[in-house]
Design a protein that fits this description.
3-stranded mixed beta sheet, alpha+beta, single chain
Length: 142
């Protein structure tokens, strides 16, 4: 039981986000001294988001076995407030224009996302590899 608590604490940020993303878990236990998580995601994008979170906790995830499938019959979660998913053809300017009402405010998006964007030359990717960007309004990140 102690090992389970230790691993759940380590991956708590992932475990906390799972229900908010519409993922249905069928198993969370210790198996072969690793945390074993099994469940179903409503989309491949959400599955990728969960894996990105896992890798941000521990890029080797040597103490975790995660078996997530995609079940498109599961309901899609409501979009998370203050976030934007990159689409094909997007640029930081276009995202700022759409979300902040002024493309020249794109530096605010960079400021609100220091973990994903370094400067105006940062590459953003649409589709499956898209990461969600926190939006900001004026000077205040949302």
């Amino acid at each position: 039981m102690e090992r389970l608590d230790e691993l759940k604490q380590k991956y708590q940020s992932v475990l906390d986000s799972i229900p908010t993303r519409g993922v249905v878990l069928s198993h969370v236990h210790v198996q072969d001294v690793k945390l074993f998580i099994q469940g179903a995601c409503p989309s491949q994008d959400i599955k990728d988001e969960i894996w990105n979170q896992i890798e941000s906790v521990d890029s080797s995830y040597g103490d975790l076995t995660c078996d997530l499938s995609v079940d498109r019959s599961l309901p899609q979660p409501a979009p998370q407030a203050g976030q934007y998913t990159v689409k094909a053809g997007d640029s930081l300017w276009k995202i700022a224009q759409e979300t902040l009402g002024n493309g020249a405010l794109f530096p605010k998006i960079i400021e609100a996302n220091p973990d994903r964007l370094v400067d105006a030359n940062s590459v953003i990717h649409p589709g499956r590899s898209a990461r969600r960007f926190r939006r900001c309004k004026g000077d205040d990140p949302v």
